[in-house]
């Protein structure tokens, strides 16, 4: 019988490279490294500074007396 040749697709190649890069990173630093430390802020929570910036940004500079 003939054996089938394995074909490596582009998706398989990219996935293998990502896994290899991740393993190298873990070996280099001793633990998995997270690239983003900032926590997502919810728009629903009260934030005085965000509200102030929104008012200043929407202000067109005209003053009616």
What does this structure look like?
With 65 residues, the protein is mainly alpha-helical. The chain is built from two helices and no strands. The protein is elongated. The termini are far apart. The model has no long low-confidence stretch (mean pLDDT 84).
In short:
With 65 residues, this protein is mostly helical. Helix content is 48%, strand content 0%. It has two helices and no strands.
Key terms:
65 residues, mainly alpha, elongated
Radius of gyration: 26 Å
pLDDT averaged residue by residue = 84
SSE class = mainly alpha
Number of helices: 2
Q: Largest sheet at a glance?
A: none
The rough form would be described as elongated
Low-confidence spans: none
Q: What share of the residues does DSSP label as strand, in percent?
A: under 5%
Count the strands? 0
SSE string, helices as H and strands as E: HH
Helix content: 40-55%
End-to-end Cα distance, whole Å, is 94 Å
